[in-house]
Amino acid sequence: MKKKKLNLRDLNKTSSDTHKRNDGHNHSSPESIGKFKIYVPAIFSFVMLIIGIAMDYFDVAFFKDWIRIVWYAVAYLPVGFPVIKEGWKSIKNGDFFTEFLLMSIATIGAFAIGEYPEGVAVMLFYAVGELFQSAAVKKAKGSIKALLDVRPNEALVYRNNNYVSVNPEIVQIGEKVQVRVGEKIPLDGVLLSEKGSFNTAALTGESKPDTIAKGEKVFAGSINLDGVIEIETTKEFKDSSIARILDMVQNATARKSKTELFIRKFARIYTPIVVFLAIGLTFIPYFFVDDYVFSDWLYRALIFLVISCPCALVISIPLGYFGGLGAASKNGILFKGASYLDEMTKVNTVVMDKTGTVTKGVFKIKEIKAIGWKEPEFMKYLMAMEEQSTHPIAKAIMEYKADGEDFQATKVTEIAGKGLKGTVNGKTVLVGNKALMISNNIEVLSETDSIVESIVMVSIEGKFAGYVIIADELKDDAHEAIKQIRESGISKIIMLSGDKDSITQQVAKEMGIDTAKGGLLPEDKLNEVEKLMSENDGRVAFIGDGINDAPVLAASDVGIAMGGLGSDVAIETADVIIQTDQPSKIAKAIKIGRSTRRIVYQNIALAFGVKAVVLVLGAGGLATMWEAVFADVGVALLAILNAVRLQKMKWK
């Protein structure tokens, strides 16, 4: 059965909707007003209850009979009506024994025997518990609307001797589409222009921009980095790369099982037992007690029902989770729901992306090898050439600081797919890849064959002058993250990346990760993780940051996104957000989950223990409803104090 969530907003919905339809102006802060409205029913009931109790205590003359009944009924309705409504819906759906039914019977029973304040108090406690839980999960994952922002929303199609802007969904296969600098490729196709440079991180996670030649494939969702280009579409939009990612996220989210909170499962067993015990307490004594009086035993049964209300559990469990969520937030970790704190404790396999997750996603100079030249002079020749380029690798090279006056390059021409040729200080300079060197009969060092990172080679006056290695830097705490994850009991750590397999393997080896695979598309990552999940008895956590990671984040048991630099889609889809972008927080999230579980179990044991004692006393006629309410309040207070301990705990 799908989990149903009580929402106190129901009472305001009709009037709110009518107001929205008739309102002719904008409010200054509709979001803050909407948030406050959630608390209005509980606040109203609390104020009415306190005033009513005060008037009872001071024996106010007019506060008698029907006035008293109406007063407490008005106090009861804002918090009681949503519960009764949900109970009725559950009954209509064939689910009789829910906590909604138990709360409804018990509190209405309290009114039936004249214990009005107790009826309101019990339901108010329940409403407060729901608000705690609502506050903890209000940002829960369930929407992937952010992914729609990534989807291209227009295509410039050549029709009737002119380029016209249309929706990509109506573009046919074989049509010519123009894409300007900085725009997304709207549909899959082949490049008609001589060449193009594309950011494909959204699709593959590849850290290096991809240079495509005429006739090669281009994919929807890629960003055009260099000049106006033309493509010929080869697929309709519904079959394009970005549409497939969107579909995978939707399907993966649907496939992912939702963990019900303990109280939901518990209520299905606890509620029928309590209801039948109350019925038995009313009628069974007739056969065993000589002076049986129906009204006395009904009164006792109703007290039993009030005592048996699981409001202490309903409050103490969310409070434990709420404490865990607060503690996690203080440590830069956002859990999108209480259930994911539980899931983190069951994780035994951690799968992680590379670019942007354990690396910074920014190109930096890793090594400079100058041959026959001093390094600063060598770099001035290289920088003079790269100054002409807007490529991210060129930008990384231009960050080098060399003393003295900069060199100037002239007659710079680009050799498609290979690099640049030009003149610096009257010398012919070539800057590019190995293919450029070979095509100009320049012998390069054999040691460059084993370099897996991006490499820029330089020749000056026909001689090999050296090379610069450009690489994505590891995050400062990357090594510590792997160490702490292992120390937390995770034995299997895997790296899956869209970047080149050689680079992925090197990073994995450097970090001490045993298994790694590179060159993966989003669907490949998804297949790998789903295979692990099918073979695994525990839980699989996936850590990523890009749009291409969204399907896997949605499908994994626990999806963890890097929130600092990560894409909006990854953050929206994930279950846990590392707000500081530090992978070392992953182990801390596991530890916080385990501490929270201990606190919750302690609260459950406390609530059960006190409840069992008071239930026995109630069945024997030795406890009144006020004692039952007091017992619940006492348990709730102890649970609060226990949960607050989480805020004071320290995790290394």
From TrEMBL:
- Any stretches that span the bilayer, and where are they? 36-54, 66-84, 96-114, 120-137, 269-289, 301-322, 599-619, 625-644
Q: Which reaction does it catalyse?
A: Zn(2+)(in) + ATP + H2O = Zn(2+)(out) + ADP + phosphate + H(+)
Give start-end positions of Basic and acidic residues composition bias: 7-28
- EC number annotated for this UniProt entry: 7.2.2.12
Disordered, as annotated region: 1-30
The source's domain of life comes to Bacteria
P-type ATPase A domain location, by residue? 151-250
The principal localisation class reads membrane
Q: What is this protein called?
A: P-type Zn(2+) transporter
Taxonomic placement: Bacteria, Pseudomonadati, Bacteroidota, Flavobacteriia, Flavobacteriales
